[in-house]
Amino acid sequence: MKTAVIVFPGSNCDRDMAVALEQVTGGAPAMVWHRDTDLPDGTEFIALPGGFSYGDYLRSGAMAARSPILRAVADAAGRGVPVLGVCNGFQVLTEAQLLPGALMRNAGLNFVCRTVPLRVENSQSLFTASYNAGEEINIPVAHHDGNYFADAATLDRIEGDGRVAFRYADSVNGSARDIAGVLNDAGNVLGMMPHPERAIDRAHGGTDGLRLFEAALGVLA
Amino acid sequence: MKVNVYVTLKPGVLDPQGKAIHHALEGLGFGGVADVRAGRFIELDVADGTSDADLDAMCAKLLANMVIENYRIERP
Questions:
Q1: Is the predicted pLDDT of residue B20 greater than 70, yes or no?
Q2: Are strands A136-143 and A112-120 parallel, antiparallel or unpaired?
Q3: How confident is the model at residue A221 (pLDDT cuts 50, 70, 90)?
Q4: Most B-contacting residue of A105, A154, A155, A182 (CB-CB within 10 A), to test interface
Q5: Which residue has the higher pLDDT, A125 or A108?
């Protein structure tokens, strides 16, 4: 399976993401620079990694969302190619309006860096099919701007449509309705603040993140 | 031509930074501050005759995130 990791200046989880993808698919992903205008032909899965793209200038993810490669990512997403945005990647996807809402400064103003329990809200999506609905999984978070915001009508709509993929089991950052991960309308774009690529090996302290990649990359154990 | 753009959080959007500033002011002994909202000020140096429509587009497409923010343009 051909996968790609988008690399922005300031990305710092791109190599962790590449390790996760290679571990599951057996092949190294293409590392695609933000100034590129095209994805490699036949790209079947795109990951936007965590980090601090463009130094979080203006707003987290704002500059990256306007970079040349994002037009290609949006085109691919429109064709149904799975797109996973983690942490800064989630911020980029909301800024690019591929996902609803916005990620604001954590309510407690602190950078939060620890493993947190998540509740799987939707186990039917291509990213979450390896989990059971309502299951609690443990995935690390590391962010300053993870406070999910959307207006009440949008929140009601995405909840009603089953587009909340994950919810924090305990409040972590002030997110509206404790939302940790959101799917797009078609279900092929997932943004989440927690880092599944940091939970793919027993040495990480857990492998709950690995199951997301196994589901999304079609190699369900 | 210098154009000033003020980007502010929409009413109703919680502003944790404004709250922290508020608490810090209180800590310095400044009572009587009812609320603090933090925003962003951007100064653009644009060609004379840049249209309102272009300035609006700059704000809506990049300078402000319309999900959470409003903007106000101040021309000379």
A1: yes
A2: antiparallel
A3: very low
A4: A105
A5: A125
Count up the domains in chain B and report the number.
Answer: 1
Distance CA A217, CA B13 (A): 37
Q: Tens digits of per-residue pLDDT, A161-213?
A: 999 999 999 999 999 999 999 999 999 999 999 999 999 999 999 999 999 99
In A86-115, the residues whose Cβ lies within 8 Å of chain B are 94-95, 100-102, 104-109
CATH code assigned at B21: 3.30.1280.10
* Calpha distance B48→B38 (Å, rounded): 30
pLDDT of residue A220: 54
Cβ of B13 within 8 Å of Cβ of A101? The answer is no
Domains of chain A, first to last? 3-216 (3.40.50.880)
- Judging contacts by C-beta atoms under 8 Å, the chain B residues touching residue A101 are 67
Handedness of CA A76, A144, A10, A168 (dihedral sign): negative
